[in-house]
Amino acid sequence: MALEIERKFLVTGEGWRNAPAERLSQGYLCHEPSRTVRVRIAGEQAFLTIKGITQGATRQEFEYPIPVADAQSLLALCGAGVIDKYRHRYVHAGKTWEVDAFLGDNQGLVVAEIELANEDEVFDKPDWLGEEVTHDARYYNANLSTQPFVHWNKAALAE
């Protein structure tokens, strides 16, 4: 079984900005609490990804390459909820951080993720890392596709 163990943080500093980046477009064909089905175009590649329910920081994840033309057609089925972002890959203390700088209706939101071997793995945090939001469903990409950052009540962000 393929497992993804991931922790997610807000980004408060600028030290990641010069890391290599690629543009991603992704949409959700299925968005339910128990599972999501995502289509993503990353540069000249495309993927179909199925994710199970998150328990702690762990969930099942299955990802398959698909033709870019198929991904473009599938993204069209996702409607207005397609997410666009730049993903920067930043290496810090031997670990790769994926820093997503969102565009469109999620512009202004910057989130960093790290994949781990287990939930208790100790890792060094870069100085530009802010609050952990691993368990805050508002920051799940699937939720950002239907409830974009631009529409959030700024008072609710202080919660």
TrEMBL record:
The active site is at residue 28. It comes from the Bacteria. It holds the Pfam family CYTH. PROSITE patterns: CYTH. Residues 2-146 form the CYTH domain. Signal peptide: none annotated. SMART domains: CYTH. This is CYTH domain-containing protein. It comes from Lampropedia aestuarii. The lineage of its organism: Bacteria, Pseudomonadati, Pseudomonadota, Betaproteobacteria, Burkholderiales.
